[in-house]
Amino acid sequence: MSEYKPKPMLAVREALDFVLAAARPLTDVETVATLAANGRVLASAQTSPLNVPAQDNTQMDGYAVRALDCAGGNATLPVSQRIPAGHVGAPLQPGTAARIFTGALIPPGADAVVMQEQCVAGEGTVSINHAPRAGDWIRRAGEDISTGSVILAAGTRLRSQELGLAASIGLAELPVLRRLRVAVFFTGDELTMPGEPLAPGAIYNSNRFTLRALLENLGCTVNDYGIVPDALEPTRVLLRAAAREHDLIITSGGVSVGEEDHIKPAVEAEGRLNMWQIAVKPGKPLAFGEVANAFFFGLPGNPVASFISFLLFVRPFILLQQGVADAAALAPKAYTLRADFSWPKADRRNEFLRVKLNDAGGLDLFPNQSSGVLTSTVWGDGLLDNPPGQTIAPGDLVRFIPFSELLH
């Protein structure tokens, strides 16, 4: 009888590549008000119908002049007009100055602005103690955006700055891809909701709160089916129901190989399991597959393992499904920093350690790296990506991924 040999665990990069290769980006488009488009993904490129600025204007408060009239560096000129922002001035006559305020249009005939700090105002005159050059403190028409230029590419995930940019060219509405529909449920007879009595052996269902918040941060529409009994048939029934109306199903718990772990056989009965077990710590038992037309992720039950598995694998998958086109947005920025601690025992898996930036510019390690210690995720500033077989000594340079790169 031949000896059973388990399949080798996938490396983190292999697993992520496998997951992303399976994604099917959404194509359904809807139009929403620009004010309501925060976090949405742009369905088509947006071009500008106008120049920004539309006309030459001043960058600051001061006096609009002809540079030639002030070439000596000590000129006193009559003030011929006052031009606030939003008003159009008359042509500037030679040998005169116009009082002008930030954002106001440069009057015809003026070719420079002298900041008010370099001027002394008199009775109907201004003394200019500076020799300006033509073009000083003038924003030229179209220097930010020119008519017909693409300002936002298709697949852009819209943040506050993209919305401001769209508004700056007068776009009141934007075409965006619809939101990803995600179903979530949680397995474990020991799970109890906060506010309910905690029976002996029971634990509060923290993963429900963590995962829902993560999905909401990513702009998903979330349907929460709650806690499912530790039994095969109820799990299968719920998988079928969730698959009918959602793009993605995410579960937490029940993905190991114990007698009370029913997620794996339920998914295999209702669909197919394409990936299981990854060489990552925490988070080895991560399941990925399909149930009918919905994708499926089965996350570990331990709260830190569930949290990190989502950040590493589910987050980039969701972004790709949502139509995000920028590959850099799928891969969080990492920074090379100094470890100010010792990690003497190497693991055969890729470890993701919870660390915190210290005042000396290095990283401190949370003392308990267990997959159940959720306080490490609150204390820490991010994850240290430690390769398989790697020990860490104080002063070693390591790869740091801040949580700010992973949570949205």
Core attributes:
408 residues, alpha/beta, 6-stranded mixed beta sheet, 8 helices
Average pLDDT over all residues: 92
Terminal CA distance: 51 Å
The number of strands is: 26
Structural class: alpha/beta
The largest sheet has its strands arranged as 7-4-6-5-9-8
Q: Nearest-angstrom radius of gyration?
A: 30 Å
Strand content: 25-35%
Summarize the structure.
This protein is α/β, with parallel strands linked by helices and 408 residues long.
Question: Could you characterize what this model shows?
Answer:
By secondary structure, the protein is α/β, with parallel strands linked by helices. Helices cover 20% and strands 29% of the residues. The chain contains 8 helices and 26 strands. It has helices at 12-22, 160-168, 206-217, 232-245, 263-270, 303-321, 327-330, 375-379, and strands spanning 29-33, 46-47, 57-58, 62-65, 75-83, 97-100, 112-115, 119-121, 125-128, 138-139, 150-152, 173-177, 181-187, 191-192, 203-204, 221-228, 248-252, 271-276, 280-281, 287-291, 294-299, 335-339, 350-357, 362-365, 382-386, 397-402. The strands form 7 sheets. It has a 6-stranded mixed β-sheet, with no helix packed on it. Strands 16-13-17-21-20-18 form a 6-stranded mixed β-sheet, sandwiched between helices. Strand 23 and strand 24 (362-365) form a beta hairpin. It is elongated. The two termini are 51 Å apart.
